Amino acid sequence: MSDRARRGDLFDGTDADRFSGPTTGDERHMLVDVLRAQRATLELKCGGLGPELSLRSVEPSTLSLLGLVRHLADVERRWFRRVLAGQEAPALFSSPADPDGDFDGATDDPGSAAEAWKAWRAEVAFADRFTAEARGLDVEGDDVWRGTVSLRWVLIHMIEEYARHNGHADLLRERIDGTIGL
Hints:
Layout lengths: L26 H20 L18 H20 L16 H4 L5 H24 L6 E4 L3 E4 H27 L5
Antiparallel strand pairs: 1-2
Helix pairs in contact: 1-5, 2-4, 2-5
């Protein structure tokens, strides 16, 4: 038998705080809490790493943990600032000329990781403020891709976006240092 940790041994209740939000009650509170837990999961999966954040999954993919942070900063910015708040807020890490810049530009330069985390945290803070101050979940914005969307839809979409990318982060982190189950 291997000394490697088994996934079944990971669920010992030590991670209960991350998923301690309400399971009944107000819809906005529940959506916001599930999104908070997904965001915390991304931070946890990247925790304790330095230059390894930029390690790619496998050729030819440019997927990396740092690329995910950069990508999710741009996604938060798009949905909350541009679509819902109607701000003129171009993406920070990608562009029409470089649509994969969020992943391709993720390098092992320590400044790159610090910049990405700073941007991600600023976009999460804006999204949290916007959501808390919105008059309701039916607040709408216009998106060139989806048409009219509500805050409710954006919150659900963001939960899905984080959940999918946290699955990628599971595999990336395990490849980097063998850590599983964060």
